[in-house]
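Q: Convert this sequence to structure tokens.
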Amino acid sequence: MKNLFFIILIFSSIIFSQENNQLVNDNLFSLPNIKKFADYLFCQKDYLRAANEYERILNLVQNDTIEYKIALSYLEMGNFNEASTRFNSITESSSFYKSAQAQSLKLVFQIGDIVKFRSQYLYINSNRAYLDSAGLASLYMFSFLLTEESLPNEDEFVNAFQIAEKNKIRNFYEWKKDFPEKSPLKAAIFSAIIPGAGKIYADEYSDGIYAFIATLAAGYLTYDNFKAGHDFRGWIFSGLAVGFYAGNIYGSAAAVQIYNAHIRFDFVNELKAFLEDKNYFLQVFNFCN
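A:
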């Protein structure tokens, strides 16, 4: 009898433990808890796992916010193709539709297809003017700073941006309008007149001085050897002098081209840094407050 009592007690404990574990598991994998975990991963910037958890929710119930967060997760991971697909899958009935359309167009800009971005912006904006409120008008104007096309009217350009951005935007506009590039032709002419002058024009002062000294020294040695009757050495030094002189002219033009490339590189980097700081002017939903 005593043994039977212990057997019943152990059996009851096992059943109770299984039922308790099932309750814990049911609670752990409930939709609210999955969402909390996914939101935690999202706010910790673990976007891949967050997207996977959000997908589990969508398999059980449709939710506009969850769909948008999945698209944002892929955007933050740099998977632009998947992010674009996700944004475009959000239906017009969704409260996130406008933002999703704006984000999708922003992706076209981010991958560097400025022509496609402009054409899509003009088409969408002509049909849905509300997209301007998402910051795309600013991004459209900003795109002119990244191309070789003529800039719009300054007031029209600057007024597309918020007041807090206007001073910086005006500086970018004036920088692009009067771009501080230098002329390779001028550099070549300067060096043809005075060896090394073109290098100095390109802000390569030490190279300019060296070019001047080397060309002058080769020229002097040419003159001195011919004067002394050392024709063979005179011809050698004359070849060096001509080489230094021609190389100095070519090098000056090349130095200006490198100078201009650096100027453009710095300009584009500042533009990109400004865009990233402003998150491409688009509305950002802070889901982590």
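Residues 4-12, 14-26 have pLDDT under 50 and may be disordered.
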